[in-house]
Amino acid sequence: DVDFIYEALLNTTIDIDSLEADTHLDEVWIKEVIKKAGMKLKWSKLKQDKVRENKDAVRRPQADPALLTPRSPVVTIMGHVDHGKTTLLDKLRKTQVAAMEAGGITQHIGAFLVALPSGEKITFLDTPGHAAFSAMRARGAQVTDIVVLVVAADDGVMKQTVESIQHAKDAQVPIVLAINKCDKADADPEKVKKELLAYDVVCEDYGGDVQAVHVSALMGDNLMALAEATIAQAEMLELKADFTGPVEGTVIESFTDKGRGSVTTAIIQRGTLRKGSILVAGKSWAKVRLMFDENGKTINEAYPSMPVGIIGWRDLPSAGDEILEVESEPRAREVVDWRKFEQEEEKNKHDLKIIEEKRKEHQKAHRKVLEKYSSLNWKQRLYVKYLERKEQKSSKPKEKERKDSNVLPIIIKGDVDGSVEAILNLLDTYDASHECELELVHFGLGDISENDVNFAETFHGVIYGFNVDASKAIQQSAAKKGVKIKLHKIIYHFIEDLQEELSSRLPHTV
Ligand code: GDP
C-alpha cells in the first residue's frame, strides 16, 4: 500500500485507519507519493551527512566614517515611453565618446560614466525604463542615488511618468527633472511643472527642492546644465564610500558573449576590484580574469560608483544580485554551495507541504467514501460507485449529443467480485471516450441464469460473462429471445469483443 511505503520511507508511525481508507488511491497519486517520499528521505540523509551551518557571505558592517571617501552619483533615467530617455542617454554617452581616443568602440555594459569639465563624474545606468529599476529594487538592491525624470514638454505628465515618480519615492531617491523636447514649437515646460505639483514633485520655482532643467535631447541642448544639476543634487546627498577592503557591488546586467563567455556588468559600491579577486553573486562565483569599461578598455581597478564589465564567472548571476568578494576559491565554492542547498531546501519544504496537504485531503475524502459504503454489501457498493461515476461523467459537457440508438445495454456476470469490479472499471474508462454509451443494466456473480436472459431481453442488451458458463438450456432460451451471450476468459478478448459490439451499434455513415 502506498501509504505504507510513504510512512515506511518517512520512518514514522502508520495510521491504520488511513491505510484502509486509501486503498482506492489513483495511480498518479501513488507515483507522486513514492517519488516525494523518496525525495524526502534522500534529503534528510543528505542533511545528516553534512551538518550544515550557514556558510553564506554577507556584507561587512558599516565602515568607520574616517575611512569614507566621496564617490560619484549613480543615476537612473526614467520617464514615459517616447519622452526621450534613449535619446538623452545616447547624447550623454556621445559627449564622452567625443572625448575618447579615436578607435575606441563603445561597449554596452549597462552603465557609463560622464565626466564633467569640472572633473566630476556621473554614472548613468543605461537600462532605461523602470522595469530594470524595479527588478533591482525587488531584490533589495539599491544602486541608484538619483532619478533623472524625463518629461516631454509637448506631452506632459503621463502614466509612466507617475509610475516613475512612485518608484523614486518608494526607493527614497531624489528626482532631478529633465523637461525634454524644449526645441519643439508646442513645448510647454511650465505646464509640466504645474502638472507635477499634483504628484508632490515641487520644482524650485514653486518653492520646492526639485531642480528642473529645460533640455532638448535631440539637439543636445542644455545637457551639461542637466549634468551639473545632477552633481548639485549629489553634493547634497554627500555620497561617500569605503574604497578599501573586500569588494561589495551589484550586478547590473549579465550575458553570454561569444568570445568572452559569461560577462557580468556591475556597479562597485565598496572596496576596489582588481584582477584575480574572487567574487560571489547569487549562485555563481568568479575569479576576475579581466575587467573593462564602457569603452571596452581593459582596466586594472574599479572603484565605488564605477561601472565595470567583469569576465571570469562560472555561471551567470542575475541583475540585482549582490556581489561580494571572498578570500579564496574554496570559500567561494562553499558560499555558492550553501546558497544552492538553501534554495533547494526551501523548494523541498514547499513541495512537501503541498504533498502533505494533498495526502490529508485524500485521506479525508476516502474516509467519507468508506463511511458511505460500510453499510452496503460489495454488490451494492459497486453499483453505487458505478452510478456515481456515470453521473460525474454526464455532468461534464459532451462533445456530441448521444442518440438513444447509441446506447449498448449490458449485463455482466463474473466468477468473483474482483473480476466484476475490474470489468466495471475498464468499462468506465472505455465509456468515457466513445460515442456509444454503455449502460450497465445488471451485474452479478455466477453462471448465466434465466434471470439474466430476461433482463437482456427487456433491455435489448448483451450478456457478457467472464470466467463463467452458460448451460445449453440457457443458450437455447437466449437464442429464442434474440439475446446474445458472450463468454470470455481473457479480459483482453472481452474488451475487444465489447469494442466490436459498440461499433456495430454506431449508425453507419457513408
Ligand atoms: P524613450 O522611449 O523615452 O527612450 O524615447 P526616445 O529617446 O526613443 O525618443 C522618442 C522620440 O522622441 C524619438 O523619435 C526621438 O527622436 C524624439 N525625441 C527625443 N528627444 C527629443 C527632443 O529633445 N526633441 C525632439 N523634437 N524630439 C525628441
UniProtKB/TrEMBL annotation:
Residues 70-240 form the Tr-type G domain. GO terms for molecular function: GTP binding; GTPase activity; translation initiation factor activity. It is found in: Mitochondrion. GO terms for cellular component: mitochondrion; nucleoplasm. Keywords: GTP-binding, Initiation factor, Mitochondrion, Nucleotide-binding, Phosphoprotein, Protein biosynthesis, Transit peptide. It comes from the Eukaryota. One of the essential components for the initiation of protein synthesis. Protects formylmethionyl-tRNA from spontaneous hydrolysis and promotes its binding to the 30S ribosomal subunits. Also involved in the hydrolysis of GTP during the formation of the 70S ribosomal complex. Monomer. Belongs to the TRAFAC class translation factor GTPase superfamily. Classic translation factor GTPase family. IF-2 subfamily. This is Translation initiation factor IF-2, mitochondrial. The gene is Mtif2.
